[in-house]
Amino acid sequence: MESRFHSVKLLEDKCKGCTNCIKRCPTEAIRVREGKAVINAARCIDCGECVRTCDNHAKAIIANSLEDLQGFDYNIALPAPALYSQIGRASGPDEVVWALEQMGFDAVCDVSFGADIVTECTRRYIKANTLPKPLISSACPAVVRLVQVRFPGLIPHLAKMESPMYAAARVARARVGAQLRIPDERIGVFFISPCAAKVTAIISPLGSQESYVNGALSIGDIYGRLIANLGRGGSSRPLYRGSGLGFGWAMDGGELRALGDMKALAVDGIHNVIGVLEEADSGRLKRVDYIEALACQAGCVGGPANVENPFVARVRMRDVSAGIDARSMAESLQLAWDCIDEFGDDFFHMHEPIHPLAGMELAESLESAIARMGELERIVRELPGLDCGACGSPTCRTHAEDVVCGRAIETDCVFKLRERMQEMAEDLLRLARTDLPSMARRDDD
User: Fold this and answer.
1) Separation of alpha carbons 140 and 268, rounded Å
2) Rounded Cα gap, residues 14 and 22, in angstroms
3) In the predicted model, what is the mean pLDDT of the chain?
4) Which DSSP helix (H) or strand (E) runs through 266?
5) What residue spans of 185-269 are helical by DSSP H?
6) Three-state SS for 78?
7) Strand pairing of 264-268 and 107-108?
8) Model pLDDT for residues 378-430, shown as the tens digit of each residue
9) What is the rounded end-to-end Cα distance, in angstroms, of the chain?
10) Which residues contact 289 (CB under 8 A, 6 or more apart)?
């Protein structure tokens, strides 16, 4: 099985083996073994649900640091729209841009601008092609990975669009390089990320052979320094800023509001997304044209790398989006359309196919896999079906999978252990009541 990069890491010294994470993982990628959580890299989609739910802070998002900017001559920050929702006091977008520049960035390009580009490219893509229904947005990398791992039959339904992050990065990198005559390899582009999945997408791009972003900084990691720079009177304009609709992509339903009128469905929260994808996979959503699916509840404003309550952040995000006046919105949209005309629609499309990812292999050969599947079904029938997680696996079925793959034993289940102990006690009782031949008394004694 191929090796994959993951931005969600386990901090073993903090893990208490509490099993909370195994119950919340949407792809059943986590087990508890010998009192510590273990992440199955083949199944992990870096959604960050375990980061969000771990009370012991034993899961962490591994991202870049500001020191990494020193490796480049010119650094561009790509703040996710969600960043602006994390600021508690009345700080306008221009003040946040200035604060980022004080942290070492030479320029800032709002990812909301990339969202405007992707919005228009998606409209043209839908209009110019006969596409399977429902078409599924590829903007959330955790959802794309979820489709690869759990719903490979829906891969043809994924929109072949670059993410807003990549769209903004490609334009900013190309324009800065041409205007300042800086070699591309000396330009550092860093995404300010609200989640783990986008960090992973930078290292392991989706639909592209190369990444146009050099790294990512977690919003939570830089939040303290960002706040320290706010309120000092500084203000600065970004290279490119999106419209209010572009900023709205940070919230659930924001992409659909930008796309406009169509038979569409918006779903947020990874477990809700799974329910909708199950409906789509079974063919029951063919009357829906488009699905906006976001792994985090409330959208990117609810990302696990954020610091603010997602519902409070959503209100702030609405204020930021509404604060873009009509003239600025028109100028931003026109600039986005000009970029599409300049670079071409294809510039913002994925150019590599999305492939299924194997989440679990019972055996290398088909014959062995069939035999193990039969054994798996036998074990499942004999298990209590309570899905309690006490065995260290999230469900009875995953426990059976672990048993046939040699990663667990049946009596890791406390109910099976109790049955086995009862059988042993009964055997011992029968043995105690049995006269062994060597212990029998002779009649003449």
Assistant:
1) 11
2) 16
3) 92
4) strand 264-268
5) 196-203, 219-229, 244-247, 254-259
6) strand
7) unpaired
8) 999 999 999 999 999 999 999 999 999 888 999 999 988 888 898 889 888 88
9) 71
10) 126, 133, 134, 135, 262, 263, 264
Would you kindly state where each structural domain of the chain is located, as residue ranges?
8-61, 66-348, 366-439
Cβ 200 vs Cβ 224: under 8 Å: no
Tokens (6 digits) for 261: 């009128």
Distance CA(337)–CA(382), nearest Å, equals: 61
Q: What is the largest CA-CA distance in the chain?
A: 116
Beta pairing, strands 30-33 & 36-39: antiparallel
Give the pairing type, strands 290-294 and 8-10: unpaired
d(CA 268, CA 279): 15
Question: What is the per-residue pLDDT for 441?
Answer: 58
CA–CA distance from 359 to each of 62, 269, 343 (Å)? Answer: 22, 21, 37
The residue behind tokens 């100028």 is 331
Spatial separation of the C-alpha atoms in residues 89 and 435, rounded to whole Å: 85
Q: From the options 3.40.1260.10, 3.30.70.20, 3.30.70.360, 3.40.50.2000, give the CATH code of 8-61.
A: 3.30.70.20
What tens digit of pLDDT does each residue of 307-326 get?
A: 999 999 999 999 999 988 88
User: Taking 70 as the threshold, does the pLDDT of residue 89 lie above it?
Assistant: no
**Three-state SS letters, 172-190:** HHHHHHHHHCCCHHHEEEE
- Mean per-residue pLDDT, 29-44: 92
Token reading at 324: 């873009």
- Token pair 């929109």 is found at 159
The full DSSP string for 214-226 is: -EEEEHHHHHHHH
